Amino acid sequence: MVEQLRNPNTETLQILMEEVTNVGAVQGGQLYIKITKGDLVYRAYRLGEAFQIVGTNAAPLFPELRSEFLSGRSTWGSECGLLFIGAEAWPVFLEGLTKRNQQVQIAAMSGLSFSNVPPSIAQLAFPYLCRFATNLSESVLFRGFAQRSIVELAVKPEIKNPALMRITNVETNWFNRCVIIDEIGYAGFDNKDVRQFLGRTSKDENKHVREMSEKALRLLDASRNGK
């Protein structure tokens, strides 16, 4: 089967596309639940594995995958196919951010969480993601997807870091806040504003936020000292 996927023919590609359609629109939150063999989430993950093997050979499916993705008919299966086809995926994910369908937006944010997003796409996606990340009328899950995408984007530190601090100040969920603070520490964006920010969050009422802030400060100190 693996060999067949590495050297796909028209029939193999069509079988993959039929599975994309059959899996349909897996909800974003379902990706974090226990996977049971044979259920939709399991099949979506297996599709990802299959498309990873096929890689750019799946390019003939691009128009169908794009249509399935942007329509919201089959988000996660089509996202996997688009990702492994290559650079053509990035404009599709960017367009997905503009759709009204929230599952399409979430899948687009998930696609943009991969670290090889081109800077040109990252800069265009950044304003959308910042708006999503600070919209408290949306679910914690939705905001989390946006925040994780921002963490991965190749955006200039002088633009990205103030945004991360603003998002943390707005965010009400302690886990989401910890993820962002952790990024600030590991990224090594060390300046007076960052130090003051982490000084404040190190006194947060939530224990986990305090601990993550102290960890971030230690990382900045180690980076400054060349360790």
Radius of gyration: 19 Å
Order of helices and strands: HHHHHHHHHHHHH
Q: Number of DSSP strands?
A: 0
Structural class: mainly alpha
Q: What's the number of domains?
A: 2
Range of strand content: under 5%
Q: Helix proportion of residues, in percent?
A: 55-70%
- Number of helical segments with 4 or more residues: 13
Account of the 3D structure:
With about 230 residues, the protein is mainly alpha-helical. It folds into 2 domains: about 1-110, no CATH class; about 115-225. The chain is built from 13 helices and no strands. It is elongated and about 60 Å long.
Helix/strand layout:
Blueprint: H1 2-6, H2 10-23, H3 40-54, H4 62-71, H5 75-85, H6 89-96, H7 102-111, H8 119-133, H9 140-152, H10 157-170, H11 174-187, H12 192-201, H13 207-224
Helix pairs in contact: 2-3, 3-5, 4-5, 5-6, 5-7, 6-7, 7-9, 8-9, 9-11, 10-11, 11-13, 12-13
Give the key terms.
elongated, mainly alpha, 227 residues, 69% helix, single chain, 13 helices, 2 domains
Describe the structure concisely for a colleague.
This protein has 227 residues and is an all-alpha fold. The protein is 69% helix and 0% strand.
